[in-house]
Amino acid sequence: SLLLGCFDNRGALAYAGSVGTGWDERTKQGLMEILRPLERASSPFHNPPARRAHHVAPRLIARIEYRRWPSGAQVQQASFKGLVDDRSIDQVSCSGGGNNTGEEMRP
After folding, report:
1. What sign has the CA pseudo-torsion 51, 54, 60, 61?
2. Under 8 Å CB-to-CB from 58, ≥6 apart: which residues?
3. Among candidates 77, 55, 57, 74, which has minimal Cα distance to 66?
4. Most CB atoms within 10 A, among 3, 41, 64, 87?
5. d(CA 93, CA 58)
């Protein structure tokens, strides 16, 4: 799974859930090659989840489709749709609270 984050209204990186579907083996291997150089020892989230993870520096934006994102909670039924390269990471904010698809979040 990829752990997802977005900037909250204070500008801190907030944990926003995870995504474990939406890729095939080729895409998974490509993601691993991209993420490996970004590895870091500690979580970049101000509210890290209580789960073991390999953490990476928050430098990428992923297009995530999801069924629901309740306000104050994590995305639900999320699916990875690809990486986004036409936006800056400071343009990604926590916009939870509703039913949406195609939101962009940081892995």
Report:
1. negative
2. 5, 13, 44, 89, 106
3. 77
4. 64
5. 13
User: What DSSP string runs through 2-51?
Assistant: EEEEEE-TTS-EEEEEEE--S--HHHHHHHHHHHGGGEESS---SS--SS
Q: How confident is the model at residue 96 (pLDDT cuts 50, 70, 90)?
A: low
Distance CA 6, CA 83 (A): 15
Which pair of structure tokens corresponds to residue 26?
């080729």
Q: How far apart are CA 34 and CA 27, in angstroms?
A: 11
**Other Cβ atoms within 10 Å of 67 Cβ, number:** 12
- Is this structure's pTM higher than 0.90? no
